[in-house]
Amino acid sequence: MIKFLLPCLLTIFFQPGETPNTGDKVLFLGDSNTFAGQFIVDLDTYLARADSGKKNITLINLGLPSETISGLSEKDHPYPRPDVHERVDRALKAIKPGHVVIGYGMNDGIYSPFDESRFKKYQEGYQDIIKKCRDAGAKITLLTPDPFEPMAVKAKLLPLGKPDYSYKNPYEKYDSVLEKYSGWLASLGTNQMAVADAHSAIHAFLKKRRQVEPGFIFSGDGIHPNASGHWLVAESILDSWKASPTPALVVEAKEMPIKINLTGKLPFAGDSNWDKGIQEDFQKKWGAQVLKINGLKEGNYKLSSNKSDLGVFTNKDLEKGLDLSQFKNLESNLLARELRKLCSERTKILGLAWLDEVGHKRPDTPKGKTLVQARKLYDDATTRIHEILATNIEINLSRQP
């Protein structure tokens, strides 16, 4: 006989009053770092598991490379930088999001020393977009810009006092500008509007990592972080939403053998391309799926699935907690990785289609499928995700002689 303790903890949820809500469409507005979309895949992978997939939250990536919220552009940019104000009304009207994540700043300082007039345009641009989103009935999360990493492009940096700066030749202390922009955004946080401080989160990790590896960077060009950096962006958003890590599965042993049902309780699968340090931190907080079994008599116990033996453990091991995510071929872990792949595919397909549907003024931007085609593929992927979450998964515990 098996008894699960605290059954309300066996689903993934947000604390009362937090967002997104069931059925929400979450719109992401931002520049090329949003367009890249890896952090949105991370978020979708987390959310797709919520309440066995029943929340049906749709993430729509409307990030656009080169875009600003300030309307500014540097002299040697190959074309005027697109301005989000040109398309935001169309996007809100067509998508009708329940929540909007807004992330700008990297391009808005025009890669130049701090200037009060540019900063004012940035502030005014944000305040205007915030008002439009509120008027549309959407809740808002503000996302601070990723840091600029100067050591990635040392040969291209310019000191203070040069006449022209740009993404090709940035100001050597440009991150100090982004720090001011991020600090201002952070000051806007309220109970009604979350702020995800990715800038501080990435800096904190870099500071810790560079104590042992001084040349460590996330970005090859100083501007665009890799998948590891994107995870820290995703984590800052999850933290701002007060999202819960995967809870422990707690079992009270009454009779042997025990059958433990893992149906709908998949771990949060990370990205195999992440830096080792990122993977380790992720596993500690988010990726582990800990099984705790109380009330076992002293002795050894075999844990097995319908496909293989997972190992023999003492009652103390099982009472302390065993991380099921370590068993790479356990069906729940295989399905968790498949779910992540489906989330990656569906967010990319839907985002590109909506980007075309809403329209924009940036040349040479990748084209997507039609919205009808994209929705069909998105729905097919979602159907498979629901099948994955409904797959019957059991593991067995038996006492060893």
Write the layout of secondary structure elements.
Elements: E1 2-4, E2 25-30, H1 32-36, H2 38-48, E3 58-61, H3 88-95, E4 99-103, H4 116-135, E5 139-143, H5 174-187, E6 193-196, H6 198-210, H7 227-240, E7 249-253, E8 258-261, H8 276-287, E9 290-294, E10 300-305, E11 309-314, H9 315-320, E12 322-323, H10 331-358, H11 371-390, E13 394-399
Parallel strand pairs: 2-3, 2-4, 4-5, 5-6, 7-9
Antiparallel strand pairs: 1-7, 8-13, 9-12, 10-11, 10-13
- Radius of gyration (Å): 23 Å
Per DSSP E runs of 2 or more residues, the count of β-strands stands at: 13
Assign the CATH class of one domain. Answer: Alpha Beta
How large is the share of residues in beta strands?
15-25%
CATH level-4 homologous superfamily of one domain: SGNH hydrolase
The percent of residues in helical segments reads 25-40%
Low-confidence stretches: 1-17
Return the CATH architecture of one domain: 3-Layer(aba) Sandwich
Structural class: alpha/beta
Q: Which term fits the overall shape?
A: globular
H and E string:
EEHHEHEHEHEHHEEHEEEHEHHE
Instruction: Supply the number of helical segments.
Output: 11
Main β-sheet description:
5 strands, parallel
Task: Calculate the mean pLDDT score and round it.
Answer: 93
Distance between the termini: 20 Å
As for the CATH topology of one domain, it is: Rossmann fold
Strand line-up in the sheet with most strands: 3-2-4-5-6
How would you describe the overall organization of this protein?
With 401 residues, the protein is of the alpha/beta class. The protein contains 11 helices and 13 strands. The chain has helices at residues 32-36, 38-48, 88-95, 116-135, 174-187, 198-210, 227-240, 276-287, 315-320, 331-358, 371-390, and strands spanning 2-4, 25-30, 58-61, 99-103, 139-143, 193-196, 249-253, 258-261, 290-294, 300-305, 309-314, 322-323, 394-399. It has a 5-stranded parallel β-sheet, with helices on both faces. A 4-stranded mixed β-sheet has the order 1-7-9-12. Strand 5 (139-143), helix 5 (174-187) and strand 6 (193-196) form a beta-alpha-beta unit. It is globular.
